[in-house]
Amino acid sequence: MKVKELGHIVLYVGDLARSRRFYGETLGWREITPEEGVGFPAAAFSSGRTHHELLLIEVRGAPPLPRGRRLGLYHFGLKIGETDDELREARDELAAAGVRIVGATDHGVTHSLYIEDPDGNEIELYIDVQPARWKEDPGVMFSDPVARPLRL
To answer: pTM here?
Structure first.
């Protein structure tokens, strides 16, 4: 077996309407859930790359995510463009929407902003800086173990 690509992410959310607004309106993902729903409280989103990249399933009354280091999902990354100008534009849109940026890092091969969704799931919004370089040498991303703060 060989993994070809990451297909989709499924997240449990506490309030489906709130998360729909965040992923649809704030992040600009296209919701593809049919009008009649899917038979349970859920919403699916796609960038157009595949049938769906994100599925949200509502689970009311679940305990919140614990803060800090823990087992399980740390964050997932969403590529939002090719240039720092696009990253700056995203930063400004997030600020206008009241979304707190929890980090900004220059990874060498990417420039990244980190935010949290309404349930505390961390999301990396990034642009590729040198795609040709890491495609030729995938190890280059890990050549500098100390991430640098990103100044936009």
So the answer is: 0.89
Helix (H) or strand (E) holding 113: strand 110-116
Pairing of strands 54-58, 42-46: antiparallel
pLDDT of residue 147: 67
* The length of the chain, given as a count of residues: 152
Strands (E), 23-109: 30-31, 42-46, 54-58, 75-81, 101-106
69-128 pLDDT, tens digit each: 888 999 999 999 989 999 999 999 999 999 999 999 988 888 999 999 999 999 999 998
Residues 116 and 100 sit within 8 Å (Cβ to Cβ) = yes
Whole-angstrom distance, CA of residue 83 vs CA of residue 96:
20
How many whole angstroms separate alpha carbon 65 and alpha carbon 72? 10
Percentage above 90 pLDDT, the chain = 66
Cα separation, 107 vs 129, in Å, equals: 9
Domains of the chain: 9-58 (no CATH), 75-149 (3.10.180.10)
Q: How far apart are CA 75 and CA 134, in angstroms?
A: 21
